[in-house]
Write a structure and sequence with these properties.
The structure is a homodimer.
Chain A (H helix, E strand, L loop, with lengths): L7 H13 L2 H8 L3 H15 L4 E4 L2 E4 L1 H24 L10 E3 L1 H4 L21 E2 L3 H6 L4 E4 L8 E10 L4 E9 L6 H13 L5
Helix pairs in contact in A: 1-2, 1-3, 1-4, 2-3
The structure holds a DNA duplex.
Chain lengths: 200, 200
DNA sequence: GAATGAGGCTTAGAATTTCTCTGTCATGGC
DNA sequence: GCCATGACAGAGAAATTCTAAGCCTCATTC
């Protein structure tokens, strides 16, 4: 059986907004701006030729059609979420935001993480910085650099090494303690080991 | 309840390929190239960190994981398809491929159909041509032009009019008889009437 | 064995979609 | 009246998706 499906990302935006009756809150949940949610829902309404929401100055009301649509969509997404969890228990919540030092940057490929590499699903494009405060504040999830620095309160481990002709430079991964052993971090570390060398 | 969802378009590609055990056939069903399906499935596998297919020189086999995933996905898409049908009975199957004459083109906005307009969900970017054979062969779904021409075997109707200072130019819509009254055509015609004038 | 066709893979770049940012508008509360 | 809130709109940036072309591994035919 072949399905005829509307824009799936638009459905996701609608479903989140319908649960909260708010583009603003849905945007936060989806990790995008409210303008993006607004555009997605509007495009979906145009495709379907139906009105799903009544817009108020401060929030949304579901139309009867929107109200009828929501339960099935929520159920479908629940099925997808549940079955995805069953086959891939550790689906990453989002990509890690990593900072890398200028020095380390020269050793990495220009478009690291390589788009076709599995790591790119777990780590976003890095920011070039060594500012620990960005990690402490939560703006970044971690830092990768070649210098060892004091990083009180954070996990600070030697995770890989760059073998050069005369010396071996260790790579340090500094991140909140809670993220140190998480799946994304583990994938990041093993990717670094395959690009460079183990800390051995 | 908030869902954690993998790339939905990737799921769509996987589900179609899994039903057919063929990227080629799935591509035909989805209206894209097999390369596109291949890339989508590969990206999904990378995100989930699982193998969903075993690739053979001529076709696919599902892995155990892929086999486990398929029924739930098919069910979720069936729910979405069914509930979408219930609220929007005439979801367009695809966008109409329309040819417009050079002359008519000068009267239309440069980026017609306007992306934010409802028509853009029903009609793709037009091709500039007056070649009726493209309609007969199925390469185009219809032609819009200002000259009346003989078009045996096709529907050939005056659908709107351009009011100029000294004269009124009718717009002719030529298409296969079967498409003349379909939803996309009707949206197209009413859009032309709102841009220009009724044939009155 | 050689030639050919089938279908998946890969890559680069084109095309499209999605996103962000900024400013506007209509409230709603003080 | 002022300010805050949240949806809307548009332009352009960013990301994703797509196409086209060529490569690879078979499987079949001559």
């Amino acid at each position: 059986m072949s399905h005829r499906l509307p824009p799936l990302n638009g459905l996701r935006a609608f479903e989140a907004a319908a649960r909260h009756l708010s583009f603003k809150i849905a945007a936060r949940e989806l990790g995008v701006t409210s303008g993006a949610v607004s555009q997605q829902v509007k495009a979906l309404e145009a495709t379907l030729q139906v009105e799903l929401f009544r817009r108020l100055p401060r929030g949304l009301l579901l139309t009867d059609i929107g109200q009828a649509y929501l339960p099935d969509l929520s159920e479908a997404f629940r099925i997808i979420s549940k079955s995805t969890e069953a086959i891939a228990p550790a689906l990453p919540a989002r990509k890690l935001k990593i900072g890398i030092s200028e020095q380390l940057k020269t050793h990495l490929p220009a478009n690291w993480p390589i788009p076709s590499d599995a790591l790119s699903a777990h780590v976003g494009k890095p920011v070039v910085t060594t500012d620990l405060e960005l990690v402490r504040s939560g703006d970044l999830d971690g830092l990768l650099q070649l210098q060892q620095v004091a990083a009180h309160g954070l996990s600070n481990e030697k995770v890989a090494a760059i073998k050069m002709p005369t010396v071996t430079e260790p790579i340090y991964y500094i991140c909140p303690v809670g993220l140190a052993g998480c799946r994304q971090s583990r994938v990041l570390v093993s990717s670094l080991i395959s690009v460079f060398s183990d800390v051995g």
